[in-house]
Structures are given as C-alpha cells and as structure tokens.
Amino acid sequence: AADIPDDLTNVLVTEEEIDAKLAELARRVDADYAGKNLLLVGVLKGAVMVMADFARHLERHMEMDWMAVSSYGAGTKSSGVVQIRKDLDTDLHGRHVLIVEDIIDSGLTLSWLLENFEARGAESIEVLALLRKPDAAKVQIDCKYLGFDIPNEFVVGYGLDYAEKYRNLRDVAVLAPHVYS
Ligand code: PRP
Ligand code: MN
Ligand code: MG
C-alpha cells in the first residue's frame, strides 16, 4: 500500500486481509458441506479473484460454474436491470449451491439470482461475498459467508471494476471521486 496511484484515495482491505478471511471462510465451508456435493457458482466478472483464491483454500472437492450477469454497465450506480450475459452450464436441480460474489451493494444482483436459482430447483443455496455495503441491509439477503462490511464508498480492485478497469489490483481500494464525477 506504499504507492497508491492518484486515482485511488486509500486501501480499504489489503491482499493479506483478504487471503486470511478467505482461508477462514473456507474452513467453515469445508465443515458445513461435509458429505455434500458442493457447487460453487461464481458471478462474472467481479467474482473471479474471490473464486480463484477461495476455491484453492478449500480442502473438499467441489464443482465450479459461472454465470455472467451485469447490472452496472459503465456507471457507478446499479441500473436496476439484471441481464444474463452467460448462463450456467450446470443443472441446479437437487444441487447444493454456494454463490460466490465480490460485493453486495444494493443487493439487486443477488436477490435476483437467489430467486432464479430457487426456481431451478436447487436443494440449498447459500451466499459467500467478500464485501458488503450498508445499502444491502434494505433487501433481505442472508449472506452466510461474509468477508467484510465496508462503508458506502465506490471501491475497486480484487475483481471490482470501474468501467472495466482496476480489476487486477491486489487490494480493495477507494476510487477517488474525481475519476467518476
Ligand atoms: C457488481 C458486483 C456485484 C454487483 C453488486 O457487478 O460485482 O456482482 O455489482 O451490486 P448490487 O448488489 O447493487 O447488485 P457488475 O454488475 O458491475 O458486473 P461485473 O461483476 O462484471 O463488474
Ligand atoms: Mn458482479
Ligand atoms: Mg462491475
């Protein structure tokens, strides 16, 4: 965190903190899914880093699938419309699904996904999210495996983008308002 580019104001969660938290969550998931055939569903594109690191902390077998949805486009506010860009390859009927997300902001993406997956007949559906913003409290989403509650700032890095940039930053950092205002 020594060299922060001037389009970021500060680092909110470091690479080391993320790694330690994902390891801790993986221990819980290993225990909770004992004897079950776990399917991780990563929500593209933001969840790629969380998925890659979390899955490698698991000791149990799992299957991995991906769904690409987008509600933000190039802006900083949710459009309110969730679009499927790529659907799952897996039949969810009877499956134990763990949705892997980078962040819950308005909660719109996840409430939509939860309803959608339930309709496909999943046996159980839980949510793992690295980050959660305060607005998420307005919608009823039970996030069983949560990394960090963060303040209501526009964050980028570790998968999170602004206009498709910054996803490859190792830390989660706050985007300087002059970049998007
Ligand atoms: C972001 C983020 C979450 C969602 C959270 O995805 O990765 O999936 O928004 O916001 P919400 O709780 O208000 O719905 P985005 O739509 O930007 O697509 P991306 O993952 O491809 O960046
Ligand atoms: Mn996303
Ligand atoms: Mg995005």
Describe the structure.
The chain is of the alpha/beta class and 181 residues long. The protein has a single domain, classed as 3-Layer(aba) Sandwich (Rossmann fold), CATH 3.40.50.2020. The chain is built from 4 helices and 9 strands; from the N terminus they run βαβαβββαββββα. The chain has helices at 15-32, 48-57, 108-119, 177-180; strands at residues 8-13, 38-44, 63-70, 83-86, 96-104, 124-132, 145-149, 155-156, 172-175. Strand 2, helix 2 and strand 3 form a beta-alpha-beta unit. Helix 1 (15-32) packs across helix 2. The chain is globular. The relative contact order is 0.20. The model has no long low-confidence stretch (mean pLDDT 93). Magnesium ion binds next to loops. It catalyses: IMP + diphosphate = hypoxanthine + 5-phospho-alpha-D-ribose 1-diphosphate; GMP + diphosphate = guanine + 5-phospho-alpha-D-ribose 1-diphosphate. Pathway: Purine metabolism; GMP biosynthesis via salvage pathway; GMP from guanine: step 1/1; Purine metabolism; IMP biosynthesis via salvage pathway; IMP from hypoxanthine: step 1/1. This is Hypoxanthine phosphoribosyltransferase.
